[in-house]
Write a structure and sequence with these properties.
36% strand, mainly beta, 8-stranded antiparallel sheet, Jelly Rolls, 29 strands, 9-stranded mixed sheet
Length: 468
């Protein structure tokens, strides 16, 4: 957000005054508001030495030059970190960063740890990503050496161009309670709700470059590192997506954006069996805040649907597939008594490697994340926390806009994009198993459905908001 000198209402030397005068009022007002709210700040770097800091991980060197901390990439060493001696819980942190000699990956660790009991002391924890590659996910939140991407840049594409290589960039992190937020050059990038780690050190990363000799010698500079730990006042909420990793939890940020829980985590309220007035008596279990479809061999409960209907909406949920499992989430559902299943557009949930359905259909349109039997998902992006892992929690999201545009998202990445009722949509329906179902997928509204496909699948954190 604000440069340290902004709190004194002075222009930072890295941003010429005439450029600020030309900036729009829309850009300047949020900065002034945040500066006025800033409390007491404490410097983390004296400008002369690395007192209060220690090196962890790889062997990349850190030094002090011209009042800045400088880290230099070297070959054949893992990620290197310059970490504070202090352990910090809630805080607001700001600094500036400049990369010299070309792009190289970097980041700011926060609430991070290095413990002998965890991978022999490997640094792990939250990281504000610095990514000057074509992917441009700078400001995203990555869980180093643990869960991987918590907030990839795809969730907030408006932030892709905020980080500028070859100039000083201003970074801001707010870690207050379970709320973790990042900014680059005064604009919001990420917002994660998570409480896996409530305290730890801050560290400056020089990413390992392996044997990429063209990156050896590239340097990263940091300056104006400061922190606020008392009288914290969170920045007013920004209209960017929120990723909440606390099971069945609804944060204030989500509530303000119109989200509500579709399942309370403890009862069957709001749900019923397909073609039934009540929730199935068998086949679905509620255990430890999870809604579980019973495994193969157990008595089947059948599909379940919401008691509400939805037309234009955004629905998100977390799911965990057991090996070889098949399931799905359907929308614009039409029930067909007395069948135990119902027709509807389906976000496919599948173990692609072990279930034979992945090889059926056409062009991969029955794989995980696809619009079942109609439109295949795009190729999955690599990366820890993005590429699906069977047995681990994954994140699904369906967006249906009022103009009938529809999106499927998997682990923060859009994998399907289509328009209901378009010529393309009608053509794929005509060559699918639904060709004889008149008006398939074109209803004005319908319930949401969780499928019981005789495989054990776990669901939690089911949330919805209506779009207008």
């Amino acid at each position: 957000m604000v440069q340290s000198r902004f709190s004194r209402m002075n222009t930072p030397p890295s941003v010429p005054l005439r450029r600020l005068q030309r900036a729009s009022l829309f850009f300047l007002l949020p900065l002034v508001t945040i500066a006025l709210r800033a409390g007491p700040w404490e410097s983390l770097f004296d400008g002369k030495s690395l007192n209060g800091w220690r090196t962890l991980g790889g062997k990349a060197p850190y030094a002090v030059e011209d009042g800045t901390i400088v880290g230099t990439a070297i070959a054949d060493t893992p990620n290197s970190f310059l970490a504070t001696d202090r352990t910090l819980g809630d805080f607001i942190f700001e600094c500036e960063i400049l990369q010299e000699g070309g792009p190289t990956n970097s980041g700011i660790q926060f609430r991070s740890q290095s413990l002998p009991s965890y991978q022999n002391g490997r640094v792990h924890g939250y990281q504000l990503e610095i990514d000057p590659s074509a992917r441009a996910w700078s400001g995203g939140i990555y869980d180093e050496a643990r869960r991987g991407w918590l907030y990839p840049g795809t969730l907030n594409p408006a932030a892709r161009d905020l980080y500028q290589l070859g100039r000083w960039n201003h970074l801001r992190i707010e870690a207050i309670g379970a709320s973790l937020r990042t900014w680059i050059n005064g604009r919001p990038v990420s917002h994660v709700i998570d409480d896996l780690t409530r305290e730890g050190f801050i560290a400056l990363q020089v990413h390992g470059v392996g044997k990429q000799l063209d990156q050896v010698g590239r340097r990263i500079r940091w300056r104006n590192l400061r922190i606020q730990t008392t009288d914290l006042v969170a920045t007013p909420l920004d209209p960017i997506p929120v990723r909440n990793l606390r099971p069945n939890d609804l944060s204030e940020a989500e509530k303000s954006a119109g989200w509500r829980l579709l399942w309370d985590g403890v009862s069957s309220a709001g749900w019923r069996g397909v073609n039934q007035a009540e929730f199935p008596a068998e086949g679905w279990n509620i255990v430890n805040g999870e809604l579980r479809a019973a495994p193969s061999g157990a008595k089947r409960g059948g599909d379940i649907v919401t008691r509400e209907n939805f037309s234009a909406f955004e629905f998100q949920w977390e799911f965990r597939l057991t090996p070889g499992a098949n399931s799905g989430v359907k929308y614009f559902v039409t029930e067909r008594p007395p069948a135990e299943s119902a027709l509807g557009l389906e976000f496919q949930l599948l173990d692609d490697d072990k279930h034979p359905d992945a090889a059926m259909g056409a062009g991969g349109n029955r794989r995980l994340g696809s619009l079942y039997d109609l439109i295949p998902r795009s190729e999955l992006m690599p990366g820890l926390g993005i590429a699906p892992r069977i047995g681990e929690w994954q994140h699904g999201r369906i967006v249906v806009y009022p103009d009938n545009r529809v999106e499927h998202w998997l682990n923060g990445v859009k994998v399907v994009d289509y328009v209901r009722g378009s010529p393309l949509f009608k053509s794929v329906v005509a060559r699918s198993k639904f060709e004889k179902n008149a008006g398939f997928g074109l209803g004005g509204s319908g319930p949401l459905l969780l499928q019981d496909h005789r495989d054990e699948v776990h669901f939690r954190s089911l949330k919805v908001r209506e779009l207008r």
